[in-house]
Amino acid sequence: MAKYWFCVKHHAVEGPDGCPPIDRLGPFATEEEASRALEKAQERNDEWDNDPKWND
User: Fold this and answer.
1) Whole-prediction pTM value?
2) What is the gyration radius of the CA atoms in the chain, in angstroms?
3) CA atoms within 13 A on the CB side of 42
4) Could you give the CA distance from residue 6 to residue 27 in angstroms, rounded to a whole number?
5) Which residues have C-beta within 8 Å of that of residue 35, sequence separation ≥ 6?
6) Is the Cβ–Cβ distance between 26 and 4 less than 8 Å?
7) What is the mean pLDDT of each run of 10 residues along the chain (56 residues)?
8) What is the SS3 assignment for 13?
9) Whole-angstrom Cα distance, residue 33 to residue 55?
10) How many whole angstroms separate alpha carbon 44 and alpha carbon 34?
11) What one-character-per-residue DSSP string does 41-52 give?
């Protein structure tokens, strides 16, 4: 199974031989999922910021 990462330093999708782990998000199953890594992270942050369990 291929795995992909998103490099936050270069804003690019990488394979297993990419940048060091500290600079990457993932792994993801597809290149498309990896390309949306920042969007997905923002969606999760928004969900957590608006979670009523954390705002009581």
Assistant:
1) 0.80
2) 14
3) 4
4) 8
5) 6, 13
6) yes
7) 92 96 96 97 91 74
8) strand
9) 30
10) 15
11) HHHHHHHHHT-G
